[in-house]
Amino acid sequence: MTRFTRPLAAAIALLGLTAGAASADIERLKAEGSVAETIDRLEQAVEGAGATIFARVDHAGGAASVDMELADAELLIFGNPQLGTPAMQADPLAGLALPLRVLAYADAEGQTWIAYEEPEEMFDDLDIDDDAPFVEKMEDALEKLTKAASGM
Prior knowledge:
alpha+beta
């Protein structure tokens, strides 16, 4: 990925997350170790599941690059065409929510957390049935991947 595509991927991911996350259900779970260690474990789990990693966004690093402070926070953007394609076939606007994104961040006490938006909620305003098989598969995959990343 070039130095130009990383910021573009980050901006697209942030736009997608902020557009739907305000009223959506966000799943959170505690993680052991640092944010970087947690995202490393998530990367390993994602690659082990055969999915593609599109970007790893270091939000705290971005803040530091403009002389601002931000607690550790990293976003991993990844996907699998076997799951994402059926969603976009059902409604092309699913491309605004995909690929999937998982955030690891440190709270004010230094506890590391993993967070992601539930797929059912991501697609809530689209022409996608909550009971679509790919929605359940995405939910199962996110649950398994984040549990592996949590180290618990």
